[in-house]
DNA sequence: CTCAGTGCAAACTATTTGCAGATTT
DNA sequence: AAATCTGCAAATAGTTTGCACTGAG
C-alpha cells in the first residue's frame, strides 16, 4: 500500500505510530492539524502513541517532505500533507476556518521583489486573517 | 517630550521601564527586536527591568498600537514600532537580515482574493524567506 | 494617598530529549 | 540480532501570572 511506501521511502521504518499519524493527516476533514489535534484524534481512536512520538513523527515527516508546518498565529504549529501545488492561506478570525488559495500574480511579484533586492526566494508564508463580510 | 505623550495617551503611566523600552525600540539599529533582545540591551545599559516587565510592556504597547508583533519563524516573537505605512518582510535565511518592502499590487490582489471568498481582510502577514543570489 | 506598575519566582504552553524497553527489518 | 522506534517523564524555551512591594499622579 502506498502509505507504507511513502514512509519507507523517507528512510523510516513502517511503524504503528507512523501509519496512524499519516492516516489521520490523510483522512481528517480539517487539513491543518496541530500536534495536539492529532494526539486527541489518536486517543479517540484508541490509538494513542504519546505526544512525544507525535511531535517526533511530524518532524520526521516534515524533513521527509511528507508534510509541511505552518505557524499561522503565535500558538501551536499546524501541519498539513505537502500539497501537490503551492498555495497560501486565509484564516477566518471568527471561525478559525482555513481557506487555501493560490495566486500566480502574487507569486510572480514576490520573485521580482526578491530579485530586486539581490535575493532568491527559498520559501514564503502568506496568511490573510479575514472575517466574513456581513457584520 | 513626545515619547512620554505616546505612553500617556495609551492610558499608561509614564514609568522608567516603559520609557526605556520605548527608547530601545526607537534607537536600536535593528528594527525588529525580540523581548530577549530588548532585555539584553537594557542590561547592557544598566537599565534592567526584568523579563516579565519587558513582556508586559511590549504587550501593552501592542494593545495601544505603539508597536506590532511578528512571528516570523517558530522561535521568539519580534516587535517593531508601528510603521507609518504598512509593509511586508523579507528575511534572509543566511544572515537573519530583515528587509522591509511594500507592494501595492500584492495588497490589492489580496483584497480581491478575500472578497472573492466572502471575506474582508483584518490583517495579513507576508514573509519571504530568501537567500543571496550568489552561491 | 491610591492605584497602577514592578520584580521575582513560580506557573504555563508548546515542544524536545534522555533513556530503558519494545518493534521493525 | 541489530538498529530504529516508542513512551514516559524530565528538560527546555518562550511567555504569562500571582503577589507583596514600589512608584507615578
Looking at this protein, list some descriptive labels.
2 domains; three-stranded antiparallel beta sheet; alpha+beta; Dna Ligase, domain 1; Arc Repressor Mutant, subunit A; 135 residues; homodimer; globular; DNA-binding
What is the gist of this entry?
Chain A contains 5 helices and 6 strands, in the order ααβααββββαβ. Chain A has 135 residues and is α+β, with helices and mostly antiparallel strands.
State the CATH superfamily name of the largest domain in chain A. Answer: Winged helix-like DNA-binding domain superfamily/Winged helix DNA-binding domain
Share of residues in helices of chain A = 40-55%
Major sheet of chain A: size, sense and barrel closure? Answer: 3 strands, antiparallel
CATH fold annotation of the largest domain in chain A: Arc Repressor Mutant, subunit A
Oligomer: homodimer
Q: Please compute the radius of gyration of chain A using only Cα atoms.
A: 17 Å
Q: Which stretches of chain A are poorly predicted, pLDDT < 50 over at least 5 residues?
A: none
Taken as a percent bin, the fraction of beta residues of chain A is 15-25%
What's the total number of strands of chain A?
6
Average of per-residue pLDDT values of chain A: 93
| Sheet/helix structural class of chain A | alpha+beta
Number of helices of chain A: 5
Overall description:
Two copies of one chain form a homodimer. With 135 residues, chain A is α+β, with helices and mostly antiparallel strands. Chain A has two domains: 3-81, Winged helix-like DNA-binding domain superfamily/Winged helix DNA-binding domain (Arc Repressor Mutant, subunit A); 88-130, 2-Layer Sandwich (Dna Ligase, domain 1), CATH 3.30.1490. Chain A has five helices and six strands; from the N terminus they run ααβααββββαβ. In chain A, the strands form two sheets. Chain A has a three-stranded antiparallel beta sheet. Chain A has a three-stranded mixed beta sheet with strand order 5-4-6. In chain A, helix 3 packs across helix 4 (51-63). At the A-B interface, helix 5 and strand 6 of A face helix 5 and strand 6 of B. The structure holds a DNA duplex (25 and 25 nucleotides).
Amino acid at each position: 500500500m502506498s502509505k507504507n511506501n511513502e514512509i519507507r521511502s523517507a528512510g523510516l521504518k513502517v511503524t504503528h505510530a507512523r501509519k496512524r499519524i499519516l492516516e489521520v493527516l490523510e483522512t481528517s476533514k480539517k487539513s491543518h492539524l496541530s500536534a495536539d489535534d492529532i494526539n486527541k484524534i489518536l486517543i479517540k481512536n484508541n490509538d494513542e502513541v504519546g505526544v512525544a512520538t507525535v511531535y517526533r513523527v511530524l518532524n520526521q515527516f516534515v524533513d521527509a517532505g511528507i508534510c509541511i508546518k505552518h505557524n499561522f498565529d503565535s500558538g501551536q504549529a499546524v501541519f498539513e500533507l505537502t500539497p501537490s501545488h503551492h498555495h497560501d492561506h486565509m484564516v477566518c478570525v471568527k471561525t478559525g476556518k482555513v481557506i487555501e488559495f493560490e495566486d500566480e500574480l502574487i507569486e510572480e511579484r514576490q520573485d521580482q521583489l526578491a530579485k530586486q533586492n539581490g535575493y532568491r526566494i527559498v520559501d514564503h508564508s502568506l496568511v490573510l486573517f479575514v472575517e466574513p463580510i456581513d457584520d
